[in-house]
Amino acid sequence: MSDLSIRKNKANVTAVFSDGTKIRGEVFLAAFSETHYGHQKVSDIIEGKKLFIPVSIKDEERVEFVNRDQIMILEGELSTPEDEEKLAIGLYHIEKVRIIFINGDIMEGAMISEAPPERSRLSDCLNLEGRFISMIKGGRYFYLNKRKVVRVESMDGDKTGGTTQPGEAGEEETSEKTDQDSGIPDDILIS
Length: 191
Prior knowledge:
With 191 residues, the protein is mainly beta. The chain has helices at 42-46, 81-88, 122-126, and strands spanning 8-17, 22-30, 52-57, 63-67, 71-78, 93-101, 106-113, 132-137, 140-145, 149-154.
């Protein structure tokens, strides 16, 4: 039977739900993506067609199936040098934002969007197709469920929705405390 198995990579994730519960585990990524060049990413899974995502629970011999629509924040993979290069040369719109969730929690970081310059206002980026807002903070990707977001505020100095450089958008918090088992900083969710 092993000849029929599909080779998968694993990515560590932490799912945060609006009631404050967290699930830490690994998701399985295909070696090749169906929608873009290269391997499958966490964003491909949460933006895909499947409602329930299998998560192998850390330090346990079990898999849970998590309802993607109930996730408030999904901490995904580390950013790669290729990602940093794309951000640096302007292939993505980057904007520092403050996000307020339905439960009152707040998260700040650099929202990244694949938007052409002429369609890169904050309102344009927030209304792109997709269920999740992509954010990068501390060198990690976070995916924020749009249905769990109440408000988004631009934190860019000029308040016009301009772009910032990758190192300027939320990366200065390098000394913040983090949850022991997760890369999610303790102060990322402020009640």
